[in-house]
Amino acid sequence: MSQPQPISAGERISSFDPQNLYRSSQNSPEIADGVYVCIHGHFYQPPREDPSRGVVSKQPSAAPFHDWNERILYESYRPNAFARILNGAGEVVRIVNNYEYISFNIGPTLMSWLERHDLETYRRILAADKISCDRNQGHGNAIAQAYNHIILPLANYRDKVTQIRWGIADFQHRFRRDPEGMWLAETAVDNDTLAVLVNEGIRFIILAPSQASRCRRFGLPHGYDEWQSVEAGDIDPTQPYRCFIPTQPNGRNYIDIFFYDGPISGDMGFDDTLQSSQQFADRLEQAVRSFESENESLDWIASERFRRRSQLISVATDGETFGHHRGGAEKTLAHTVINELPARDRQIISYAHYLSLCPPTWEVQLKPVTAWSCSHGVDRWQHECGCGGGGHWQQQWRAPLRQALDWLRDHLIVIYEKLGTALLSNPWAARNDYINVLNRSSEQALEQFFVSHQTHPLTRGERTEALRLLEMQRHAMLMYTSCGWFFDEISRPEGTQILRYAARAIELAEAVSGKLLEGEFVEQLAQAPSNVDYFKTGAGVYQKQVKPSQTSLERIVAHYAISSLFNSFRPEEQLYCYTLRRQDYYQQPLGALTLAVGRVEVTTAMTQETQILSFAVLHLGGWDFQCGIQAFPNRGHYTQAKKVVTEAFSTASIAQSILAIDKQFSQTYTLKDLSQEERQQIMQQLNQETLQRLDKLYEQVYRENYSVLMAFHRDCIAVPQSLQVAADITLSQRALAVIRTLEQDITEPNGDLLKITVGRVAELEGIAIEAHHFCTRLKIPDAKPVLERLIYQGLSQTLQVANLEQYIELEAAIEGIERLIKLGQKLDLGLALYRVQELYYDYLNQYESDVIATNQPASTHQTSSHRTLLVRLGWALALDTNAVLASD
User: Fold this and answer.
1) Distance CA 317, CA 266 (A)
2) Dist. CA 446–CA 827, nearest whole Å
3) N or C end of the chain: which has fewer CB within 10 A?
4) What torsion do the CA atoms of 683, 687, 689, 693 make, to the nearest 10 degrees?
5) Looking at residue 190, what DSSP letter applies?
């Protein structure tokens, strides 16, 4: 891609008059003064959903959490929404929404996941942008992001447009405003990408200083406008720049660019800069420049006319740095923006707001194709360039992987255009608008979409075909998610994930066109050498890690059928992104055997594909299952098959039963055909009865040898292992039984929750004492979330009725909460009370506001006593109540 040619001074300003330039700057409605600080967080996780099921599979490496999205949510995204400022004793004095004070982008795929899994954090993020808009003349902290983090310079033109439009549409859907800026994946940029950004209305982007080529002040007469080379990354990052796009035929022909401070941004991620707010602020101070004339050689212009009155200290890093990569850094960030920087007279600002106050006076030209995480342009995502290595593994797989995906993309384009033209008036415009269907997930949104784009009123089957084509294109873009190339091995989870997207695109393409693409695609992957002998090549990764994870409607029904032997399903059940409507179900036990026969209508959420499938599943005992699936042409055929299978089962012959299922149902599945997570769930249910029998045996041993155990511990004699195990298991099971009852009390509260559960709490306290006496470490993983919920709901219930006239009731409730917290300590649960703290913090702020609003004298006995109780509860929750109330 060629570098943009400079635009002459005459093209920018018809006649140069330094006096007019000076007067224009002085007449600006608002001019920024002093030093401003903008801290940008790029919050992003790659999409991790299984393409066939629409859910994130369990990731053992993220333990103790289910997956990495969930882990980083609790280490970074949520802590930044509720960042703590602590006093010297470690007590909370303030809870800060960091998103209110920093510039940020959050990847659309991550925001979609947050909306489904932590609505509270999701809403705090949206509220933060709204508050920043209200505070800064409509210029919010949030900026958009290209949709699923593909390297835009390597994308074809249509994908560039769709990625940027989807990013804008997703932003509008969530933040209810137009984005002013956009974050590009890995800050990868080229001229064509800039042109699309300008066409789509994006006003600014953020880049690394190493991406600039040269700069100059614009609007100066010939002879004073010489370019300054900044190839070495030494561009001044304390001001915005304007990049002109000469290829733009109409409208705005430029985009503004902020360059973050490279050294400070690097230190935030890889040094101890974020160890404390003072260190962070000190490091930011080192970037402050003196306000001196920028061009004192212009002696015919008074120096103050070109004197800069403000400057921007701009830093950018991965948002996960705050809390995930750097534990506790979200607290450092909160203290920095709330206390440290204001004390130094430094003003926190967003890029959009600063741009409205200080438009660029310099222009910049960029290097041809660059990114912030590759010193070789964008080779990290297409060649063996060495970036992302550090070990002894080769990266020769990168180029063949890119080539294979490009080959697949180009074949999918042909299928999409050929078949899509008959259904959609403009297939590519329809793809651009498809984001509205994805975001709203409603029948109304789908109906509006088809009304706008269909060539004729589509039948149900034609709609399914159109949706398959659109989903094929969506997965064709997801397979370019940058993380797949970021590291140095194709079989890593990131590489495997993009191949799963490719497999789903192939599956959909074959379903709509009948064209077989998988064979040649796998052949091309065989040219991508893996560093792991087990896989050998990308083809091995595809066959061993991708193919087994694919899910069909038949496999979904097999999961439903096997699970139905242990669960009472409702007439309509949701499994992942599939809806199953029961049309018939029959179950019959016979000794150790169990048979179930049924018929369900299964519908896929994304493509509206619907099929009626019948099943017969035989449980032979243990882990042995035989499940047959068949799509019968009508209900009569199903009824006949059901009769044959049930009659064979009634003979109590396993051989006859299996033979009947095999004959009547063409596709057969066993437990190993289900996903690993599904197998684990069923295996746990299978083991339940066995474990209960063992628990009773251990309890009998414990009960019969109780006095013996007492003697061993009294005389400090080593306890025989079998007796100690009996004590450990029995006391743990007793505690779990109480916890399950307590959970039911919480789920179905009927009155004062703390009073209702007092007996259960006393029982747990007794078990804790007994366990301590016998040196037993209770294994009760279910206890922690249950006690946390009990404390939260108990406090919520208490605060709803707490007032100055109910001192005794409030005191009793506080005693109950204190008791629960102490119980958690006795059981060594490590209770997480952050949600309780947040609830109480909000109450304290509202309480103080109400006292002020009602002119209640703070010296009255009632108010004083009430405040004493509030302080006492704050101690229990590790909140500095007096400081919170004083700061309101």
Assistant:
1) 8
2) 52
3) N
4) 180
5) -
Q: Which amino acid is at 57?
A: S
Give the pLDDT confidence of 759-809 residue by residue, as tens digits: 999 999 999 999 999 999 899 988 999 999 999 999 988 887 665 456 677
Determine the distance from the C-alpha atom of residue 149 to the mean position of all C-alpha atoms in its chain, rounded to a whole number: 13
Structure tokens at 847: 């309480």
Tell me the C-alpha distance between 465 and 456, whole Å: 14
Q: Which residues contact 111 (CB under 8 A, 6 or more apart)?
A: 122, 125, 170, 174
Q: Do the Cβ atoms of 774 and 725 come closer than 8 Å?
A: no
User: For residue 543, is pLDDT > 70?
Assistant: yes
State pLDDT tens for residues 199-227.
999 999 999 999 999 999 987 888 778 99
Q: Rounded to an integer, what distance in angstroms lies between the CA atom of residue 722 and that of residue 701?
A: 9
Which residues touch 848 (CB under 8 Å, ≥6 apart)? 885, 888
Omega within 30 of 0 (cis) for the link into 720:
no
Query: How would you label 825-844 residue by residue, b for 16+ Cβ within 10 Å and e otherwise?
Result: eebebebebbbbbbbbbebb
User: What six digits make up the tokens of 242?
Assistant: 């304007």
The Cα–Cα gap between 377 and 368 comes to: 8
DSSP three-state, residue 206: strand
Tally Cβ neighbours within 10 Å of residue 344.
Answer: 14
Of the listed ranges 255-259, 611-615, 750-754, 784-788, the least confidently predicted one is 750-754
pLDDT in tens, 830-865: 999 999 999 999 988 887 776 656 655 554 545 677
For residue 97, which of 796, 870, 838 has the smallest C-alpha distance? 838
Q: 286 — phi, psi (to 5°)?
A: -70, -15
What DSSP line would sit under 637-648, residue for residue? HHHHHHHHHHHH
Q: Tell me how far apart the alpha carbons of residues 411 and 405 are, in angstroms, rounded to a whole number.
A: 10
In whole angstroms, how far apart are CA 758 and each of 599, 753, 765? 47, 9, 10
Amino acid (one-letter) located at 610: T
* CB of 778 closer than 8 Å to CB of 731: yes
Residue 458 φ/ψ region, left for φ over 0, alpha for ψ in the -120 to 50 degree band, beta for the rest: beta
Q: How far from the centroid of its chain's Cα atoms is residue 655's Cα? A: 49
Residue 62 phi/psi, 5-degree rounding, is -95, 5
Q: Give the containing element (helix H, strand E) for 572.
A: strand 572-575
Quick check: pTM over 0.85? yes
Q: What is the mean pLDDT of the chain?
A: 89
* DSSP 8-class letter at 787: H
C-beta of residue 556 within 8 angstroms of C-beta of residue 613? no
Domain borders along the chain are: 39-49+59-291+307-337+350-366, 399-549, 553-674, 682-832
Q: Is the dihedral of CA 827, 831, 836, 837 positive or negative?
A: positive
CATH number of 39-49+59-291+307-337+350-366: 3.20.110.20
Place of tokens 């470690």: 90
Q: Residue 739 corresponds to which tokens in the numbers above?
A: 């916890």
Partners of residue 374 on adjacent β-strands: 371
The residues near 298 (Cβ < 8 Å, ≥ 6 apart) are 224, 306
Dihedral, 73, 76, 81, 85 alpha carbons, nearest 10: 140
Per-residue H/E/C for 611-629 = EEEEEEEEEEECCEEEEEE
